[in-house]
Structures are given as C-alpha cells and as structure tokens.
Design goal:
Elements: H1 2-36, H2 41-54, H3 58-70, H4 74-87, H5 91-107, H6 111-124, H7 131-145, H8 151-158, E1 163-164, E2 171-172, E3 175-178, H9 191-204, E4 213-219, H10 226-247, E5 255-259, H11 272-278, E6 280-286
Parallel strand pairs: 4-5
Antiparallel strand pairs: 1-2, 3-6, 4-6
Helix pairs in contact: 1-2, 2-3, 3-4, 3-5, 4-5, 5-6, 5-7, 6-7, 8-9, 9-10
C-alpha cells in the first residue's frame, strides 16, 4: 500500500507544481483588478505589490510606476517601469514602459539616458505614438539643443550596446542627434557650434572608439527648396568633418560626411522650435 501511495503523492505534487504558475497569475490578475477599483492610491499600490509578488506582469508593474511617479518617488517609478519592460508581451507594451523610463530620467536630470530611451520608445511604438511620449521626447530634445552636450554624454550614447527588444525582433545601433549650431543659412559654425564639435571630437577619440568609423549626417529645416537644403546639409556635415580632422588628426580617415537635407524632419511644424530641432548633425557608428 505504501508503494502505491508514495507515487500518488508525488504525482499530485507534480500536477500541483504544473498548475501553480497559472494559478498564481490568476491570483495576480485578481489583485490587479482589485487595485483598479481601490478607493485610494495607497491601497492601489498595496494590491499591485501583491500582484507582482505572486505573478510579475506588465499591467501591474506599469500601473505601479505611474502611481510612484504621481507620488514623487522617481527611483521606485523607474524600477517599476524597468520591470514592466521586462514583462512586456508586445513591442508596443515594451515601448510604453521604455518611454516612461525616459520620462523619469528626463525629470531627474539624466538627459542623455532620457533621450536614448525616449527615441527608442518612439521608434518602437506603432504609429501614432501617444501624446505624452511625443511631449516628453520633444521637451528632452529642446533641453539638449539649448546646451552643449558634453563629450562624456556623447560617448554614453555611442558606447552603449545596440538595443535589442525583449522579443529579439528589433535591434538598434547607437547614434546621437547633435545640436551643431550654424548661423542662419550658412555652413559656418558659430561659437556654440564650435564648442559642440570640440566635445564631439573628445568623445570620438576615446580609446573605446578606435575600432569604429563615424557617419556625420547633416539635416536642415524645411525652409528653402529641396535642392538647396540638400546642398546646405552636405556643406554643414563637411564643415563638421573638416573641423574635427583639423583639431583631432587621429580622426582622419574615420569620418564620412553626408547630407539628408529636409528629407528626415523630426517635426513638420512651422515654428522656430521645430526648425531648430530639425537642424542637426546625426552621428552614427560604422563598423
């Protein structure tokens, strides 16, 4: 009799273990729906914490992140959104979590990391992207274009590993849009532009960068004809290349300058902010 009972117990345990994850996630879903109907924020947080404890899931982590953000707890919010991204079941869900990470990073002054997260989120999210993501990305870009991006921050973009989506379907090689400032309708760098190119040179000559060549892609705003803007974008990219090679001779032979004119506008508006954001030099890595 004992020989019969023992395998039976083992069989029951094996069946229980097989169903346990599914039962845990049903319980987690129940806690999540309780959180949605809770009377106050703290109760919602407590139910959501229970939900993620028994079954880590995107919805609960994402809602937790929003609640922490509302409570002014950026570190907890950032962690929750990172957990949500890891648990995302679709590229759209992953993009939403990544965008929220960028929003928090921007609010806490970590602009380079914020820009990378927000630009990746916009790229991954099926069109149209939600308004909050568009607003967060535009505000982060405005911040970067009104300052000179330091060499260490440029390097943080370019030295990062390619971003691979959780489902492995998307991979994005590092790149950075730089606010290289030119006087209106000219291909000559102004003082801010010269400072920015100097920081770019310091970034590109770091030891980790020696294995790479770099693409310098000029972009203009949409004012002027297509042909004129194409020529202007090429001149501006070449100006950056010439200045870099003059000041950093080790970069000679590593730089390729091209222009895209007005063909890849970031924004199609007609105000000066949109024009400013469209005028840029994109730096990409070339193996």
């Amino acid at each position: 009799m004992k020989r019969f009972v023992c395998p039976g117990v083992l069989c029951i345990i094996a069946i229980w273990r097989g169903f346990s994850p599914a039962m845990d996630c049903r319980l987690g879903a129940d806690y999540y729906y309780r959180a949605r109907s809770a009377d106050n924020r703290q109760q919602r947080i407590e139910w959501l914490q229970r939900s993620t404890d028994v079954c880590p899931n995107f919805n609960a982590w994402y809602m937790l992140g929003l609640l922490y953000e509302q409570q002014g707890q950026p570190d907890q919010a950032l962690n929750a959104f990172m957990q949500a991204r890891a648990a995302a079941g679709s590229i759209q869900a992953e993009a939403l979590a990544l965008g929220r990470e960028g929003e928090i990073l921007s609010q806490t002054g970590r602009l380079p990391q914020a820009l990378r997260a927000l630009e990746l989120a916009k790229r991954f999210h099926p069109a149209p992207a939600p308004d909050w993501l568009e607003t967060a990305l535009k505000n982060a870009r405005i911040q970067s274009f009104r300052s000179v991006i330091a060499a260490a921050d440029i390097a943080s973009f370019l030295e990062a590993d390619p971003y691979l989506s959780e489902n492995g379907r998307f991979a994005v090689r590092p790149a950075v849009n730089l606010p290289v400032h030119f006087d209106f309708d000219r291909a000559d760098l102004n003082s801010a532009g010269n400072r920015q190119v100097l920081e770019l040179g310091r970034a590109l000559t770091r030891s980790k960068m020696r294995q790479w060549s770099f693409g310098l892609v000029g972009h203009t705003d949409k004012r002027g004809t297509e042909t004129y803007n194409q020529i202007l974008s090429e001149k501006r990219a070449n100006t950056v290349k010439i200045v870099l090679e003059r000041q950093f001779s080790s970069l000679i032979g590593q730089l390729q300058a091209t222009g895209r004119g007005e063909t890849d506008l970031l924004y199609d508006g007609d105000d000066e902010t949109d024009h400013m954001l469209n005028r840029r030099v994109k730096v990409t890595l070339i193996p």
